[in-house]
Specification:
Residues 285-343 form the SH3 domain. The chain is of the alpha+beta class. Helix content is 70%, strand content 8%. A five-stranded antiparallel β-sheet has the order 6-5-4-3-7, with no helix packed on it. It has a two-stranded antiparallel sheet with strand order 1-2. A hairpin with a 5-residue loop joins strand 5 and strand 6.
Amino acid sequence: MASESSMSTSVEQGNSSNGTSKMGQVRRAYSRTRQFTLEKFGKGEVTEYGPEYTRLCTKVDKIRSYTERISMEVSYLLQPNPTLRMEEFLMKRMSPTHGINLPHLALGDSLLSYGKTQEGMLGAYLSNCGTAHKGIGESRRKFMEETNAYLLTPLRAFLDVDLRAANNERKRLGILRLDLDAAKSEYRKCTKTEKLKQLEERMAIEDEAYSEQYQKTVDCYKRIVEVHERHLGYFKKYIASYSKYMQESVIFLDGITTTPQVTESDEKLDNTSGGKQDGIFTIGSEPRKAKAKFDYTANSDEEIPILKDEVVMVTQENDAGFATIEKINGETGKVPTAYLEFL
């Protein structure tokens, strides 16, 4: 019986405590709402934020606005079509290894296939165009991947983590400011002497909580500004990647006109002296040394991968924009002529 009595007493005390706590929360919510309403009508007392906070708040708001805007516009630059952009986003979420579909690569494949069906200068030129488009496509793919990694991902993390945390601190400060001003208003209007001490204590507690949150928010905003300064490195990497993509595109396009083409005299030579051997036109009798301009990944068994700045010997060039090379280790295979710089 004694244990049951003590248990009953503790339960009653717990219920009483919970009831008091809930009443306190309701009373606090009511005072906030009342204070907010009075301020809207210009009748409530408002604690002004300090000049440092106001300056930082304006700066962080501007940082947030431009970061959101630039992040969105860079996404548009990489993929202007919103439908395809959403499709790529969903595919990437479902399959992280999903590659980016680029029109340059599809057009390059079509041009190469078409070039193989044509003879003479037309076939050679179509093949060179296809090789150039595939090179541009691969270069753009790398640019898009680097832009996502070096610029968009850090900017989105900045928005989703740092700025969101700062916004939460700001909201918390606003709530505590309402509590403080509500306490001040109630103290100012109080006419009962016995209640003044209680209101003074409440006002001191609210003021301490507000001051702590104020400093916490200011420190958070200062960190935001410091982190924002590091964005210079992100944009430098983005511009370096963009510049590399544009330069490589020009080189690939120049390769269309600088790659040896089939001429009318070549065709006459083929018909009279048998200069054509298995679809390959020998350009010069001596092997030529060349250096790889970019990395190249083989797309068939006949081709061979090479690394940027790797030095190879070119043994033959054909009319499809490819050259047969020999590496230092003796490996041989074909690579696009546009990827080579003759030494």
